[in-house]
Please model this.
Amino acid sequence: MFQVKLRGPFDIVYDEGEAPVPREGEAVVRVAANGICGSDMHRYTGHQRIKNPNKVTGHEFAGTIKEINGSSPVLRPGMKVAVNPAVNCGTCCYCRHGLEYLCESQKFLNGMTEEVAVPLGNLVALDEGFDLTLAPLIEPAAVAVHAVGGIREATVLIVGLGTVGLLEQQLCLLRGNRVVTMDVASNSLDLSRRLGSEWVVDYGSPNKAEIVREFLKERKIDYVIDNVCAEETINFAASQVKKKGEIIVVGVSNVALGIDFKTLLLREVALKSSYLYSHKDY
Model:
């Protein structure tokens, strides 16, 4: 059974492994499609440490159930499923209080291989007509749901229009929000515009704050979603969000940041982070 492993920066290998044998309460999923996450790219380019070079890579995946060891009222062999890759212990203080995505013993399933054994509780049934080549987008969509799912009828500025940022945009629009989007890449800006952003701004413009105010007029920004997590973007968010507004950081930084906390304090702005997703989000 072939496997894909990331041995080191710019070093991807195809390897052979044994077919999984499901334990009680697990199913074997025959993988149909797997996405490449930004975190995969960070490890590939050497910006993030590879903890285990012998581990299969790629946690955005889906497929069909090959076999089940146990019983389920919903799942059956041959069914299309998406895989929630975050496997949690179920017993730590976070799992016991409904915060399983912050589990102290969390492990991740990876799917760049032919078959994977998955706990039944980590499988989500898909409609028979669901195109499995689109299924890897479910995992980043869950990240977006966790970050912005509760925001409704507000004015939202989204900084950073990668996959997660564009999914956040769509969710915000579906929930009746007014959306302003920013990035430095022209293709991301064009796609954001085509997907319905009301006001698309080049973050590289020296006049970006004035361009945003031109659109908002008397309205204020209730939320800024920062998918970059850089010193500059967080401080820009602090200068743009309304008093008592919220900045939600979804992006990941590998370095310490110098944050303008005085501006946050004097304007009573809440700086929050959003990590992963609950199974309900997924």
In short: Residues 140 and 164 are 6 Å apart (CA to CA). The mean pLDDT is 94. The longest helix spans residues 163-174. The first strand starts at residue 2 and ends at 8.
